[in-house]
Structures are given as C-alpha cells and as structure tokens.
Amino acid sequence: MTEIQAASFEGSDDGQKKQGTRVFKKSSPNSKITVYLGKRDFIDYLSHIDPIDGVILVDPEYLKERKVYAHVLAAFRYGREDLDVLGLTFRKDLYLATAQVWPPIEEQKKPLTRLQERLMKKLGPNAFPFFFELPSSSPASVTLQPAPGDTGKPCGVDYELKTYVADGPDDKPHKRNSIQLAIRKLTYAPEEPAPQPSAEAVKEFMMSSGNLRLEATLDKEKYYHGESITVNVLVDNNTSKTVKKVKISVRQYADICLFSTAQYKCVVAELESEEGFPILASQTGFCKVYTMTPLLTNNRDKRGLALDGKLKHEDTNLASSTIIRDSSQKENLGIVVQYKVKVRLILGFGSSDLSVELPFTLTHPKPAESPPPSRPASALLQGNIPSSGADVPIDTNLIQLETDANDSCGYRDEDFIFEDFARLRLKGHDADDTEA
C-alpha cells in the first residue's frame, strides 16, 4: 500500500483546488456499526487538546433494544502481551472515559463540530456523533521500541478508541460488533524562550598543581526532530596532565513511573574526536564547536528506546521530551522522557575523566498560524470561512504524515475521501500486514 495523500488536488486556472476532505473509517466484522474519524493524531497544544470527535453509523434494526457505546482508554503496558495469564495483565489504566452514543442522551449532547455536521448530513439519520475531551493531565503516547522478533503489543503508553454494541457500558463486547482504533496523543512544545544550556566543571588532581576546567554550551534549549545540535566546548588545562580526546553523546532518559520509578538511558547520537588533541599540560584556550543530529534512523536496533507512539505501518521519531505541568501527577504520565548532552574529556592512564551534562528539549515545531483544531458550526455561520480564491491554511500534523484538512473547504459539504483505518507503511522498511 502506498502512502495515502492527506488530500487530493486537481489543477485549475486559479491554482490548486481542494477536491475532498479525508475521513478515516472502520467497520465492525459484521458491518452493523461503522466509525468515521477525521484524524488519528490528537495534539496537546498545552493551552488546549484536540477533541476526539467523530461519527458512528448504526443499523437500528440490528441493535433493537441494545445500545452503542464509545470509550477512550489510555493504558501503560509494561509487559509483553503474550505473558498475560489467568486474568493478570501487565497493564495499568491511566485514563478511561465512556459515552453512550445510541440512543443519544439529551443531557449529554454537545455542539456538533463542523466535521460531525458534514458527516451526519452525508451519512443520513442513522449517524450519531461522539465527543471526548482529554484532560490536561492525560499522558502522551510513548512506545518503547521492541527488539527484532518481539510479537504482540509493544510496551508503552497507548490510546485506544473503542466502539461496541452492548446492553450496558460495563458489558463485555463481542468482537463481531465492536471496533478498536489505535490513536495517538502528541504534544507541541510551548514557544516561550528558555536560557541557553551551559555547564562547567573543574577538576583538581592530587599529584598536580592547578586544575582542569571544562565548559560546554548548547546554541539553544529547544530542538526540533531532525535538527542538528551544536555543542561549544572550551577547555583550560592548568595541570600537568594530558587530555587525549573528547567524547560527546546525546542521551535519552526514560523514567518508568510505575510502582517505583526506574530510569533507563539510551545513547541516540555520539561522536569521538581527537582533532586538536592532545591538550598538553598548561595548555589553555582550547575551543571547538561540534555538531550532531539524534535520529531514529540510526537507532532502530536499540530495544527499549522511547518513540513518539509508534504504531503499525507508520513511521515515527524519537519520543519528544515530556512536558510536566504538575510534578505530583507524574505517576499518571506512565513514561517521562528527557534528553541530555554529555561532554566527556578522556585523560591519560591513571586519571579519571571529566564530564558535564546539558539538558535540552527535543520536540516538534508548532505551526506559526494554526486554526483551532475543531470549530463548531456557529463559527461557519459568522463568515469565518475563507473565500474560494484565498489560500486556505492547512494544519500540519505532528509527524508530517497526515494533514488535518477537516476545517477547510467547508463550502463543499459533499466532498469526502473515505479511507480505511489502516496505518501508513513505514517508508523504506518492511512491515507486517496487520492493521491497527
């Protein structure tokens, strides 16, 4: 399967013209209920979180007296799925919300989003909306990279949207009339400036006068995925020792917040340089700039590496730095990811090394101008839709595989491109043939 394009375009005299809005759908095995969803990645902007809004198409004759429910579950899986026995699962539920979709409950009705309005108009009277708002304390999707040959769900924090037919919300659903969708919650970094990371270390030796001084500075505090990190290293050697070389590494630290906190570290980029070395005794003023780029491409064989919610058939990237709003709620995050640059001076035999660490944030850029992720129909009635001759902004999704075009071209309600809810294949790599 080739990569699905976010939206289709056709040439016209006045430039590119949008042909349709992509909508993902998935039906139950017996085809009696079908879920329609505008996107699979939901973004936490820190000021607000994309709502999970969609539509379920039902067959009332099949349902009879039964009801249709939808639930969103965020769970932290900390053991292999094939080890789940006797009702004991290696999983901790971090967030759960359930809503009755059919028959609709008047007291729980919310204003329809534009996507829901258009879908319900397209699908007819048996289409019913669902709407979930994730709390600000909900965790981000993080997956720990499995080893080659590992089967089953990988460890990490994942989100599941499930719709099912049952007599009550707590009844066990049957596979034939239920639908499971793997979705992701991802985070944009705040745009406020932060001070340049800088660290200094001084070391004295018993059998030598003077000291060895190491200072390291990063060019900024926040880096985007795929961006190079620049490290400025200054060394003053006022001792009789010799500095042979320098080693610089970018390290990912993943705190597993379970019953007790355990920390795992993984080197995601490193370099070793002898250029300008050795730094001899009483030599001062050494200054050099090094550049390195942490990429998942160079780390696909490392088991336990934290990724941004990797899902089947879809490429991803190294996990973004976790933004902690409330340290007392750290347990509910499941996995907390941080990054540091470590600069280490290697000395001669018999002398211990000197090193410093510089923490930084690795994240995704937030578009300069992004429309609200989901606007109610009232916004359309107030004339906020761009004219057909104007450039319609498209909200770029976080991992650059999907484009959220649900809020554009509202004047063409009938134009939808329905795609099966299957993950995009990972470019240039083999993947299994199952679907999320």
Search tags:
mainly beta, 5-stranded mixed β-sheet, 436 residues, 3 helices, 7-stranded mixed β-sheet, elongated
Account of the protein in words:
Strands 5, 7, 8, 10, 11, 12 and 20 form a seven-stranded mixed β-sheet that branches. A five-stranded mixed β-sheet has the order 9-6-4-3-25. Strands 15-22-21-17-18 form a five-stranded mixed β-sheet, with no helix packed on it. It is mainly beta. The protein has three helices and 25 strands. Mean pLDDT is 75; it is low at 1-18, 367-413 and 423-436.
Shape: elongated
Number of H/I helices: 3
The total strand number stands at: 25
Cα distance spanning the termini: 14 Å
Strand content: 35-45%
Structural class: mainly beta
Q: Could you name the ranges where pLDDT drops below 50 across 5 or more consecutive residues? A: 1-18, 367-413, 423-436
Give a quick rundown of the structure.
The protein is mainly beta. The protein contains 3 helices and 25 strands.
Topology (SSEs and partners):
Blueprint: E1 9-10, E2 17-18, E3 21-27, E4 33-37, E5 41-44, E6 52-58, H1 60-63, E7 67-77, E8 91-102, H2 114-123, E9 127-132, E10 142-144, E11 156-166, E12 178-187, E13 198-205, E14 208-218, E15 222-224, E16 229-237, E17 243-257, E18 261-273, E19 286-292, E20 306-307, E21 335-347, E22 354-363, H3 377-381, E23 395-396, E24 403-404, E25 416-420
Parallel strand pairs: 3-25, 5-12, 15-22
Antiparallel strand pairs: 1-2, 3-4, 4-6, 6-9, 7-8, 7-11, 10-11, 10-20, 11-12, 13-14, 14-16, 16-19, 17-18, 17-21, 21-22, 23-24
